[in-house]
Amino acid sequence: MSRLRRSSKVMRLWDWSVPPTSAHREVLSIVPEGWIDAPRATRKPPILFVHGLAHGAWCWREHWMPAAAERGFPVYAVSLRGHGDSGGRKRLGRTLLRHYVHDVMQTITELPQQPVLVGHSMGALVSQLVADRYSPRGLALLTPAPIQGAAYEMPKLIRKRPLDAAKVLAGGTLPLRAEQLFTGLDEATAARYVDRLGRESPWAQYELLLPHRIGPVRCPVLVVGTPDDRVVDEKAVEVTAAAYGVDPVWLPGIGHDLMLDGGWEKALSVVLDWVDERC
Amino acid sequence: MSDVIDRGGAWAVVGAGPHGLSALKNLLQLGLDADGFERDTDLGGNWNFHAENSRVYESTHLISTKPFTQFPDFPMPDAYPDYPSHWQVHRYFRSYAEHFGLLDHLHFNSEVVSVTPAADQRWDVTMRDRETGDETTRQYAGVVIANGHNWWPKIPQYPGQDTFTGEIKHSADYKSADVVRGKRVLVVGAGNTGCDVAVESAQNAKETFHSTRRGYYYNPKYAFGRPSDQTADLLLALRLPLALRRVMFKSVLRLTVGDFEKFGLRKPDHEFFETHPIVNQQLVYYVGHGDISPKPDIARFDGSTVHFEDGTSAEIDVVVFCTGYLAHFPFLDDSYLNLDGDHPVLARQIFTPATPTLAVSGLIQPDSGQWTIAHWQGMLIATYAALRAQDPQAAQRFYDAMVAETGVRFTGGAEYKDSTRHYYEIAHQEYLRAIERDLQRIESMTPSVMAAAR
Ligand SMILES: Cc1cc2nc3c(=O)[nH]c(=O)nc-3n(C[C@H](O)[C@H](O)[C@H](O)COP(=O)(O)OP(=O)(O)OC[C@H]3O[C@@H](n4cnc5c(N)ncnc54)[C@H](O)[C@@H]3O)c2cc1C
User: The whole model's pTM is what?
Assistant: First the structure.
């Protein structure tokens, strides 16, 4: 925990001297009719979704985006470079988390006002790194990749899934299978989603193992976990929540991909109710 | 005094250039109330081309690249080039203000005409509506002054100057090459503006002379295929010592541009980093093509002739003095800014020892882009303002520690040449390291600031 610094990070020597290259960005959006003309003080804040490892903006488009727009929220989802229909696939082998942070920052500056950031899994970690330099309206972390680094998970992974562990260490994408991501989907649907998963940057995966700093976050934070998550365990969720001084919200019965799994409605309403109440 | 509107705990921000905007944004973000006043009809300050006090000209592009120049929490679009134009910069500031909801807190056409102390370290701020001429006074808990220091022209005087039969202009009046087209032109001064104007004159005038007081290092915008300021930051990041960086920079210049003296330019009389960096790749090129004739300082004017210190002379139609700008605070009594002659001496170039509720943002001239620093100055001021609202005693302790360091400069180890041009010069990394330490200190004093903010 001592690695988690709470004060502003001013010196960003790396970003100044070797700035991230740019890549084409896929940004999906649904803006409810009339929203843009409504007074800023009363209209609902925009929500920006950031996907997790090997996913893409499509995972939000499936259920959450239309449902949240239905509730009056302008919703946006970005595909990080090398994912979904964004560019940068060829350079994936040279992509770091800071490139993902850059992609999210670029997307943010195109939004008409400060969004609520909703990050899933690795996207939750990226969102936290974004919040270290930018003040979003709110920060929702769903089944978040652990801020303290996932290295402690490695022995377990090696014991339970030695082949997967070897693959990750060799720079391959962590295999994500239907039984790890979902608890309540029919086989065909689950297979269809798993089919859409892409590759992940080996360097980003290595970075997930390391501890990361969190900044002086000044906005409301929501941390959501599920006891039935087979990718991010309960301890990781608890540590992340503790770092922000909040209690996690637990959603038993839903799997890691809570925007796609059966019960996604429940998970979405937890997030949107929190936005309505706190942000 | 009954017509003074009491704005309670709110802070006033004078000016809506990049420094004013980021101060306003950070105050609002930390949960304070704040009003911004701008004498022009639009925001952007120097980058608002059509404003009376804008000093950019049609061809102005940044001399620093995006990564360090931009606000760290609002990067410039990827679609912008390395060195954006002033039009793009203006659009960028507008989207910043819109994104963070600043327009609701900005008053345009409002010139601050006086800032005077009230009871309890509060301030009466009087603004004049530039359309109607009406004046109103509001009272604030504190004031951030961000009126810019790049608009009040500094005009030199040479013997015989009144007898000169040609035109005398300051770069403040220079908006495009129309000023020089087809004429015999003398450009005075080798700041970044002076070099830009000399190059533009070389492309448009009949003849161009460029008078400088000393030889300078003219740095290329690109070296080895990378923007050179990013390479400079890399060397700094590696913490290479000043002497080594000097050797490296000089060799890069020699390898890429060549020997200045062979071009007929003077040898610099000072070390690298002792003057504000000049970034201009074209000047040497036009000197090499004979389109710019380098000259030393002016000795005197005589009718249409200008005599130089080396005994040479030239017939001139128009002189453009690119001799810089001075800070100017017509709305505030000098005593609040701890003046040394003509320039304020402050702590971190922000806080004044004269009063704890007045702060200045923008009184800096970094060896880099500026708005990253604008952001952190605004953040430090806002965090301090928030602490004052919550725990005045703790804020006083922070302020006392701050002003104990009044006058401390951040030179990166170099000795700046004595010139009005270097009053506000800072080595950006050394300066920001100090601000980072200040923020660490004040943020640890204010856990509640985090909680109180939205
Ligand atoms: C030609 C030129 C090129 C430059 N190139 C670069 C570059 O490449 N990179 C870089 O980082 N910097 C550059 N600069 C420096 C530039 O000054 C800063 O980038 C920046 O504009 C300073 O911001 P500021 O907010 O302090 O002041 P300004 O931009 O000057 O804004 C001050 C604002 O305050 C307003 N104001 C003043 N007095 C009052 C009053 N009494 N009441 C109400 N409003 C008032 C003014 O109207 C103005 O809008 C350049 C400057 C010039 C002149």
Answer: 0.95
Nearest residue (CA) to ligand 1, atom 48: B45
Contact indicator for B31, B108 with CB cutoff of 8 Å:
no
CATH number of the structural domain spanning residue A30: 3.40.50.1820
B17 lines ligand 1 (CB under 6 A): yes
Q: What is the mean pLDDT of residues B435-451?
A: 78
| CA distance to A110, A198, B400, per residue, from B44 (Å) | 19, 43, 33
CA atoms within 13 A on the CB side of B280: 24
Confidence band of B453 (pLDDT split at 50, 70, 90): very low
* A42 touching B (Cβ < 8 Å): no
Nearest to residue B321, comparing CAs of B217, B191, B176, B207? B191
Range of the domain at A249: 3-278
Put simply, the answer to whether A40 touches B436 (Cβ < 8 Å) is: no
Chain centre to alpha carbon of residue A279: 18
Distances (CA, A) of B388 to A90, B50, B400, B402, B451: 52, 38, 13, 14, 15
Ligand 1 atom 9, closest CA? B369
Both tokens assigned to B141: 């808990």
Strand-pair partners of A221: A139
- Ligand 1 centre to CA of B159 (Å) is 32
What does the pLDDT look like over B416-429, one tens digit per residue?
A: 876 777 899 999 99
pLDDT interval class at B2 (50, 70, 90): low
- Side chain identity at residue B391, one-letter code: D
All domains of chain B, ordered by start, with CATH? Answer: 4-152+325-453 (3.50.50.60), 161-321 (3.50.50.60)
Q: At what angle do helices B228-237 and B428-445 cross, to 10 degrees?
A: 60
CA of B452 to the centre of ligand 1 (A): 32
DSSP code of B293? E
**DSSP conformational letter for A21:** P
Say which DSSP state B86 is in.
H
Cβ distance A16 to B67 less than 8 Å, yes or no, reads yes
Q: Residue B67 and residue A13: Cα distance in Å, rounded?
A: 10
Pocket test for ligand 1, best of B150, B170, B280, B326 (most atoms within 8 A of CB): B150
Q: C-alpha angle with apex B337: B332 to B339, nearest 5 degrees? A: 115
Cβ–Cβ < 8 Å for A25, A93: no
Distance CA A210, CA A122 (A): 12
- Is residue B158 in contact with ligand 1, taking CB distance under 6 Å? no
ipTM of the complex: 0.95
The answer to whether residues B326 and B152 touch, using CB atoms and an 8 Å cutoff, is yes
Contacts of B32 in chain A (CB under 8 A): none
3-state DSSP assignment of residue B365: strand
Domains identified in chain A, total number: 1
Q: By C-alpha distance, which of A269, A268, A155, A141 is closest to A217?
A: A141
Nearest CA in chain A to B453: A218
- When CB atoms are compared, the residue of A7, A11, A220 closest to B444 is A7
